[in-house]
Write a structure and sequence with these properties.
It contains 17 helices and ten strands. With about 475 residues, it is an alpha+beta fold. A five-stranded antiparallel beta sheet has the order 1-2-4-5-3, with helices on both faces. A five-stranded antiparallel beta sheet has the order 6-7-9-10-8, sandwiched between helices. A hairpin with a 5-residue loop joins strand 6 and strand 7. It is elongated and about 100 Å long.
C-alpha cells in the first residue's frame, strides 16, 4: 500500500512498473503548487491533448485547501468524468498498464487514477463473416469498451448488466458478462463468474478460445461447437434480450453467446430481417441443406456399393466406368484438397486471390478428371457439399459436420448399409450427448421437448 512518504511511493511504483527498462512506460515528474508530483502512463494508450488540458487546469485552479487528501484533490481539481483514487499498488500498476494515467502527489497516500486512455482500433465496419442482405452494417472490434457500447446503444434498459472481470495472472485480460437482470439465469451467471475468477493461467493467449477451454473442463472429443460466436452487435443484443449471456473478451472482435443449442448455431440474422414467410423459408432451407451436406456423399457411396437396389429413375447417379482409385479415397482426397485451398486462400495476398481461384478450379475440374484421379460425379457432389457449408454462419459447426460426414463415409465403406445406419446413429448420439459450457442440452428445445420454443426455432414468428 502507498504511504504519505513521497520518496517511498516513488520506490514502490518504480519497483512495480520498472519504467527505466520500458520506453513506453513514462514517468513524468511535475510540480503542483510547490508540491512534488509524478504522472505514470503508457505512451500510445493515453490521449495527449486531454492530458495537457487537465494539467493546465490543475496548474491554474489548485489551492492549498485542495491538498487535504487524494479524494479532495480529485473532486476539486480534476475536471474529468472517469476519476478514482486508490492506494493499492497492484491496482495502480494494472491500471497504468491498461492505459490509465496515475497521478501521485507529495503527502498523499493514494494515487489519482484518470481514465484518459485510448485504444488503437479499426472502424466498426460490417464483419466479413456475418454479412446480411439487410440490417445494420456495424460489427464488433478488438476493444471491449466499444463492443459493450454497441450493445448499450441497442438496449437502453437499466436492467442491462455488464459485469467486469479479469483473467490471466500476467495478461490480466478484461472480460465482460453482458445479460439482462431478471431474464438471464442467475445460476449460470454465478457459475461463469466463479469459473472465470478461478482461472489460474498466466495469459489468455488465444483470447476467446483460451477462455472457452478454461471454462469447459469436459471432453473435447465431440466435434460440435460448445458456444456460438457472433461478430454482429444486433445478433448479440437480440440474444441478451432473450435471456442469454453474452461474453466479451478484450482484443477479440466477436462475442460468445450462452447457452447455445444446435438450433441457435443454425440461426442467421437474415432470418429476422425479412418477412415471416421469407424468413421461415430461408431457415428451413438452411436446415435441409445442412442435413443434406452430411449424408449426400455417403448416400451416393452406398448406392455405388449396391447398384441393384437403385431405382431405374436414378440409375444416372451410378458410375459406369471402372475407377483407377476407389471412390472413398477420391472423396476423402477432395475433402482434404478443399481444406488445402481454403488455407491457401487465407495466406494468399489479395492481388493473387483471383489467380489462385482459377488454378484451383482448373486443378479440381477437367484436369483431375482427365488424368483419371477422380470421377466427375465425385467432384460434383463435393462441390455441392462445399457450397452447402457456407449456408450456415458457424465455421466450427461446419467442421463438426465435416467430421460426421467423414465418419459416415468410412463406416459405409467398411460395413455397407449397416455402416451407414451405424454412422447416422453415432452422429445423432454425439449431437444429443454434447454439452455446452452452460450445461444445457444441445438439442433443446427438441430434447427436452418444448413445443412452443421448437416452433419458434423452425418457423419465423412475427414480432409482437
Amino acid at each position: 500500500m502507498l504511504t504519505t512518504n513521497y520518496s517511498e511511493n516513488l520506490n514502490i511504483m518504480e519497483r512495480c512498473l520498472n519504467t527505466k527498462d520500458s520506453f513506453d512506460l513514462v514517468e513524468r515528474k511535475i510540480t503542483i503548487k510547490n508540491r512534488k508530483a509524478v504522472m505514470y502512463f503508457s505512451d500510445g494508450l493515453t490521449k495527449d491533448e486531454i492530458a495537457e488540458k487537465l494539467m493546465e487546469f490543475i496548474y491554474k485552479n489548485t489551492s492549498e485547501d485542495d491538498f487535504k487528501n487524494a479524494d479532495t484533490f480529485s473532486q476539486n481539481c480534476v475536471p474529468y468524468i472517469e476519476v478514482e483514487t486508490s492506494g493499492d499498488e497492484e491496482k495502480i500498476t494494472t491500471d497504468v498498464l491498461s492505459g490509465i494515467c496515475a497521478l501521485l502527489i507529495e503527502g498523499f497516500d493514494k494515487a489519482v487514477l484518470i481514465d484518459i486512455r485510448t485504444y488503437p482500433q479499426r472502424s466498426t465496419s460490417e464483419p466479413e463473416n456475418d454479412k446480411v442482405l439487410r440490417g445494420s452494417k456495424d460489427g464488433f472490434v478488438e476493444t471491449i469498451v466499444f463492443n459493450t457500447a454497441l450493445i448499450r446503444r441497442r438496449i437502453r434498459d437499466p436492467k442491462l448488466r455488464v459485469k467486469a472481470l479479469r483473467a490471466g495472472k500476467k495478461s490480466k485480460t478484461d472480460i465482460a458478462l453482458c445479460y439482462m437482470e431478471g431474464k438471464a439465469d442467475t445460476k449460470l451467471i454465478d457459475d461463469l463468474t466463479r469459473r472465470i475468477e478461478s482461472i489460474k493461467a498466466d495469459a489468455l493467449t488465444m483470447n476467446q478460445q483460451s477462455l472457452i477451454e478454461k471454462l469447459y473442463k469436459g471432453l473435447w472429443t465431440n466435434p460440435f461447437p460448445k458456444v456460438k460466436h457472433t461478430e454482429r452487435p444486433d445478433t448479440a443484443a437480440a440474444a441478451v434480450l432473450k435471456g442469454n449471456v453474452v461474453i466479451f473478451v478484450d482484443n477479440s472482435p466477436s462475442a460468445i453467446i450462452l447457452p447455445t443449442s444446435i438450433f441457435d448455431l443454425l440461426e442467421e440474422a437474415d432470418d429476422f430481417y425479412f418477412s415471416p414467410v421469407t424468413g421461415t423459408y430461408l431457415r428451413l432451407a438452411r436446415y435441409f441443406i445442412t442435413v443434406l451436406s452430411v449424408v449426400i456423399t455417403p448416400l451416393w457411396l452406398l448406392c455405388l456399393q449396391n447398384p441393384k437396389y437403385v431405382p431405374d429413375a436414378f440409375k444416372f447417379i451410378l458410375v459406369d466406368e471402372p475407377q483407377n482409385i476407389p471412390v472413398i479415397v477420391q472423396l476423402l482426397a477432395i475433402e482434404i484438397g478443399i481444406d488445402g485451398l481454403r488455407l491457401a486462400s487465407l495466406n494468399t495476398p489479395s492481388s493473387l486471390t483471383t489467380p489462385l481461384s482459377i488454378i484451383g478450379a482448373i486443378a479440381l475440374s477437367d484436369f483431375v478428371v482427365q488424368s483419371g484421379w477422380v470421377c466427375g460425379e465425385a467432384i460434383l457432389y463435393m462441390a455441392f457439399v462445399t457450397i452447402a457449408n457456407y449456408t450456415q454462419p458457424s465455421y466450427e459447426l461446419g467442421y463438426g459436420l465435416k467430421f460426421c460426414r467423414i465418419l459416415l463415409l468410412i463406416l459405409t465403406t467398411l460395413f455397407n448399409l449397416w455402416g451407414f445406419i451405424a454412422g447416422n446413429i453415432i452422429n445423432i448420439v454425439m449431437l444429443c450427448s454434447n454439452r455446452t459450457i452452460s450445461g444445457k442440452s444441445y438439442m433443446y428445445p427438441l430434447f427436452p421437448f418444448n413445443g412452443k420454443e421448437l416452433l419458434r426455432k423452425l418457423v419465423r414468428i412475427r414480432t409482437k
